[in-house]
Amino acid sequence: MAGEMPAAAVTAAAAEARALARAGDGGADGAAGWARAAATAIEAAEAFTGLRLIERDAVERVVAAGGSGAWRMLAGQPATAITAARLVAADGTGTDLAPAAWAADLDADGRGWVRVTGLVGADRVGAAGYVVIRYRAGLAAEWASVPAPIRHGVAALAAHLMGARGDDPPPAAVAALWRPFRRLGLADACRGPRT
Question: Quick one: which of 193, 17, 174, 49 has its CA closest to 113?
Fold first, then answer.
């Protein structure tokens, strides 16, 4: 689960889209439309690339698998910090895991990895229990620091969304701009971090 996209990033992306389309803001209604189009384009960019564009908090459930020690890759990439692990029992009660009961790793490719080990006594996970991992993930701290090709693709898609009629497909150039940043991590999810 990703934290909410910062409003400043959406506003900046909307401004770039309006500039690309050579359109005014169109008043309050127009500005809201551009913001919606920019937010949609940012979500599309994140889905296509597999990257969180703006750094923000994330929360993810990890199956503890009885504390087996298997490494699990976090979905949000690039991960910048893994901050906490909380055991949630089948009845919904939660306790923070002791540092000795879990491990975290950030690899050179920005993937975050966690493993739960040594769950004993009060830390034992029930059959329906899980561990909640809190972390931060994102490519850049602010919109201006996102790589220019990604930003331009977002602007082009948002401008297209504002002017699209019917079932017009998005411009092919958008995918071409984003493709070099695309991450496909299916095989990596099973492998675990490098040791």
Answer: 193
Query: Torsion angle of alpha carbons 138, 36, 6, 176, nearest 10°?
Result: 20
Domain ranges of the chain: 7-53+141-188, 56-137
Cβ neighbour number for residue 7 with a 10 Å cutoff: 10
Which segments of the chain are extended strands (E)?
56-62, 72-73, 79-88, 94-96, 102-106, 112-116, 130-137
Tokens, residue 145: 């620091």
Q: What are phi and psi of 127, to 5 degrees?
A: -55, -35
What is the full per-residue pLDDT of the chain (195 aa) written as tens digits? Answer: 456 889 999 999 999 999 998 876 565 558 889 999 999 999 999 999 999 999 999 999 987 655 567 888 999 999 999 999 998 877 778 888 888 888 999 999 999 999 887 665 444 555 457 889 999 999 999 999 999 999 999 999 999 999 876 678 888 999 999 999 998 755 445 555 554
Q: Cα-Cα-Cα-Cα dihedral of 56, 61, 65, 68, to 10°?
A: 10
Give this prediction's pTM.
0.80
